[in-house]
Amino acid sequence: MKLTKKDYFKGISFVILEAFFFSLMGFCVKMAGNLPVGQKAFMRNFIAFFIALIMLLKSPQKLKIQKENLKDLIIRSVFGTAGMLANFWALDHLDIADANILNKMAPFFAIIMSIIILKEIPNKIEWISVFLAFTGVLFVVKPSAGVASFPAIIGLLGGFFAGTAYTYVRKLGQNGERGPIIVMFFSLFSTIVCLILTFFEYKPMNLKQILFLIGAGICAAIGQLAITAAYTKVPAKDISVFDYSQVLFATIWGICFLGEIPDNWSIIGYIIIIGTAIWKWYYALKLSKR
Fold first, then answer.
1. CA-CA distance, 72 to 79, in Å (whole number)?
2. 84 pLDDT band (50/70/90 cuts)?
3. How far is 119 from 290, CA to CA, in rounded Å?
4. pTM
């Protein structure tokens, strides 16, 4: 079916809406203050699990999982949980915009991991985009900072874990697994992991922290629904670049509410990474029209 301008407008609008709410989720996580990462992540996943569960219970197939996909569902959940925890830890130790841009390296890591997991060999343009993206990361991570760059490395690892998880999501989709099942399985898995972590390192919370964590969970759930709506209307390759607006939103939250002004090196890194994503997106569009 040929897509109309209205379809593209809706798809782009949903992606930007997702970026807005995920950036707001990151802001809420940061504003929750000095709490264990597992405790912060628990609420985010607990709410998402129940939303996915309700969606599945309303579907004809209910909670049916294809047995041959169980192993990949577990692996996707392990990498997804590791990526989320690393990202939340980075949010506690980096400016919110820096943590977001490092997490947005996930699509470039997905290109690399697709070689191993899906046996897909990247073309020349994809290899160049990976090289340019990593060049941009160097400006954000600032390796010369020594020990001070450790939080940035954790943030980058979060992007790697997320990229690997995305690759398994794609593999599961190719094998016919339903989207809500993937979301529900991951949410349940990560909720259990975070609950265990919280049991060992729980810290009492005040009302402000509880409200921010509830806000993080609600924002994450809305963001998940928005991105699902976007990619059911328009192929990801046509609109995914607009997801980088999340970095712009995060920068606004950092400047307006946290007093975080990105330094010149970070800004150069943002420009390189986002510019590479736009260039790769434009190339994919031209290729699809041939």
1. 11
2. very high
3. 25
4. 0.84
